[in-house]
């Protein structure tokens, strides 16, 4: 019995030693690689302590609507406008967060299965509810905007375009739209999906791209093992959009922040759900803080 225990202990020690040596090797090899210089892009040159109006500022106005964008854009020329973009059944690119139309409108079904003629009749402010339980924007004529309408309306602001539901030919439509409005210097291309970012980068290598949600998730997983340097990041800006009400500052450990900064990447994260979290995110080195209440942070920055 003692002999068997000794043998088991010896095996465990050997396995542990091998794992440790592998960990040291992988981490050391990754850290030894030269860090490439970040893309010199006009968008990121002044990306420091900026307010990102997440979905246009969804806590203050109906999300991803022209009303929300007008409100956020009027706060400051330096506010970055974040919008979610999806294709309709007719392959028109529109501003909308979820597939399900019931999330924000009086419609039903999925946006990708809805023709434009039906989609543009929906009330985009229908589900917006204030703290007192009222729905002040129902029947106010708010429509789901197209990407073309939004870019044309605010040509002087910077944008984060967060694309969903990537399909064949979508990259070409995006490129054509951005070039039409001469916005390549003012746009960061983001997506939770790797595919669209890969294809866009192959076509327009000098545009600015965020890391995908999948890459951010892999970074968080490897951080638990102390292997942050091993994770490949295909992007110019580290983007982390959390989908729960747990603020992003709790998802970004000090080790992840240190590793992202080691790679000379700037960070956009959020959304923050209150001013205190947003200020803490700034203190920890997050360059662009997403918020649903952009007016609060803009007022704070002016003090």
Explained architecture:
The chain is an alpha/beta fold and 303 residues long. It has one domain: Phosphatidylinositol (PI) phosphodiesterase (TIM Barrel), CATH 3.20.20. Helix content is 39%, strand content 14%. It has helices at 2-32, 42-45, 66-75, 116-119, 147-153, 170-180, 194-203, 213-223, 248-251, 254-262, 275-283, 294-302, and strands at 50-53, 80-87, 93-95, 159-163, 187-190, 208-209, 237-241, 266-272, 288-291. Strands 1, 2, 3, 4, 5, 6, 7, 8 and 9 form a nine-stranded mixed β-sheet that branches. Strand 2 (80-87) and strand 3 form a beta hairpin.
CATH architecture: Alpha-Beta Barrel
Number of DSSP strand runs: 9
* Distinct helical segment count: 12
CATH superfamily: Phosphatidylinositol (PI) phosphodiesterase
Using only CA atoms, what is the Rg?
22 Å
Could you write a compact summary of the structure shown?
With 303 residues, the protein is α/β, with parallel strands linked by helices. It contains 12 helices and 9 strands. Helix 6 (170-180) crosses helix 7.
């Amino acid at each position: 019995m003692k002999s068997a225990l000794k043998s088991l202990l010896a095996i465990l020690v050997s396995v542990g030693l091998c794992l440790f040596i592998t960990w040291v090797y992988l981490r050391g090899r990754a850290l030894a690689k030269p860090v490439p210089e970040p893309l010199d892009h006009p968008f990121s040159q002044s990306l420091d302590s900026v307010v990102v109006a997440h979905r246009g500022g969804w806590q203050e106005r109906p999300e991803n609507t022209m009303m929300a964008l007008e409100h956020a854009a009027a706060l400051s020329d330096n506010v970055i406008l974040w919008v979610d973009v999806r294709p309709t059944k007719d392959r028109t690119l529109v501003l909308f967060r979820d597939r399900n139309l019931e999330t924000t409108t009086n419609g039903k079904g999925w946006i990708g299965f809805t023709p434009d003629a039906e989609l543009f009749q929906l009330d985009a402010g229908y589900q917006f509810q204030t703290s007192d339980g009222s729905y002040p924007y129902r029947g106010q004529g708010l429509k789901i905007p197209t990407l073309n309408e939004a870019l044309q309306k605010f040509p002087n602001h910077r944008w984060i375009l967060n694309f969903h539901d990537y399909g064949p030919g979508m990259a070409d439509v995006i490129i054509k739209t951005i070039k039409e409005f001469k916005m390549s210097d003012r746009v960061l291309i983001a997506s939770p999906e790797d595919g669209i970012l890969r294809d866009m980068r192959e076509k327009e290598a000098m545009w600015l791209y965020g890391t995908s949600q999948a890459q951010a998730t892999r970074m968080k997983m490897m951080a638990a093992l102390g292997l942050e340097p091993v994770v490949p990041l295909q992007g110019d800006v580290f983007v982390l959009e959390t989908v729960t009400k747990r603020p992003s500052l709790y998802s970004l450990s000090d080790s992840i922040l240190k590793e992202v900064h080691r790679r000379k990447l700037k960070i956009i994260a959020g959304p923050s759900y209150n001013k205190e979290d947003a200020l803490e995110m700034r203190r920890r080195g997050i360059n662009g803080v997403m918020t649903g209440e952009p007016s609060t942070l803009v007022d704070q920055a002016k003090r």
